[in-house]
Every structure is written in C-alpha cells, then in structure tokens.
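thought: fold this chain, then report.
action: predict
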Amino acid sequence: MLGEDDTGSFAELNVPQIEQTEQGPIQTVLNDMSVGEYDITVSAGPSYSTLRQEAAEGMAENMAKNPALWGVIGDLYVKNQDWPGADAMAERIKKTIPPNLIADEDKEDDEANAMVQLPEGPLPVAQVPQAMAALQMQVQQATEAVQKSDADKNAAAVLQQQNAGLELQVKQKDSDTKAFEAETAREEMERQKTVDLAQAQADAEKYRAEQTKYAADLVRAAAENIHAQMEADMPKGMDGMKDENKPAMPSLEEIAQLIVASRQPLNGMTITSPSGGVYSVKMQ
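observation:
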C-alpha cells in the first residue's frame, strides 16, 4: 500500500488466526477479502508534491520569523525539498537536534523497525501476532492430522480384522467345498463299484447261462449221436413186433442223463445202455 507521502507498506490478506473468546478459541481470518463488497472512490486534490512544497514554504516562512526553529525542524524542512540527496541531508541535520526533541520519533522508529529473531530469520514485531496466529493454526492442523491419522489407523485395523475374518471364512468355505467334493467322489466311487459288481454278476450269470446252454447243446448232440447208433443197431424186421416184445430203447433225455453221469469228456466217451450195449460218442 502507498501512503500520502508515497511510502510503501504491506498488509497480509486472508491470514488465518486463532482468536481467544469467552467461549474458547475460534478460528478467524485477518483482512478477509472474501467477505463484503468493495468500491473505489477517487478524490481530486493537491498532489503529494504540491502538499510537500506547501509544507516546505510554511516551514521556511516560520523559520524566517523565528530562526531558532532551524535547530528544531531543520531536518523536516530539508526532507520536504526536491533536491537530490535531501533525505541524506535531513538525516545528518537530525543528528544535530537535541535528542530530547526527537526521542518520541526515534522510539516510534525503533518500535516500527524492531525485529524478533526466529529460526527462519528476523521477523518484525508488528507481524508477531500474525505469525503466532499462523503457528497456532499450524499446530491445530497438525493436531487434526494426527487425530485423522489415528482414526485412519483404527479404521485400517478394523478393515484388516474384517479382511482376516473374511479370508478365514473363504478358507473354511473352500475346505467345506473340498470335503463335499471328496465325499461326493467317494459316494460316486461306491456307487460305481456297486454298478460294476452288479454288471460283473450279470455278466457271470450270462456267461454261466451261455456255458450251460452250450454244454446242454453238446450233451443233446452227443445223445442224438448215440441214439442214432442205437437205432442203427436195432434188429431188422422189428417194425411188426409188439411194443412189449421190442428191445428197450432209451429216450434222448435218458441218454443225456447217462452222458452227464459218466463225467467223461464228450469226444470219445463211451456209455453203456440199459440193454448192455456199449456206445462211443463221436463229435464232429
């Protein structure tokens, strides 16, 4: 900012600070430019140079009337001139003025220029409250960050426990699934064994039936063979004989029973008929 004498000064805008109240500390903003509406007013008047010349003329007029004033305001008179080096000359003249006349000005200058040494470097005393407010804000933010970090850690721990519980449930479910699959496989194996056993028994029965039929067919063929031999051996001219006078002729079933009872291999076996005849089985 520029003053009437073109001297520059600075003011921080939107500075967060902590204000102590009866209800406790509250957060406020210094020079908050986001609040309110602002207008610009332009006033036409004498420029600073014109005002400075008027001040210099007034001082000269007073010193002409009272030359002793030079030892009191000489530095101010020279400072308001447009000469090159006027400020340096004013400073030198100011050193000749009795200290008691400028003590208050020096005190104000000392206070304005006073600095506080901080680790980051010197800081003007006027800016200490703002710096303290900013520091308090940083402390509050750090505290909130720590609290948030603790909350995040607690949330992470809870989430980790939940994940561990979920992982345990998944493992238990996987174990149950594997156990179910193993039991299902065992039951399927038992069922297949039962099916295979039943199939084997059926195949064995079928094979035995086939073998029995085959053996019966062989026995019947052998019986027919022997029966044919017996018929061939019957005496000629027996057709006119009475049945009771004919020699006994065994039936096929009787011959088959004789073959089975003999327990001999069919091919080449011999049997004795009830009439005493001996016959051999001749298989083709």
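thought: worth noting. The chain has a mean pLDDT of 76.
final: tokens above.
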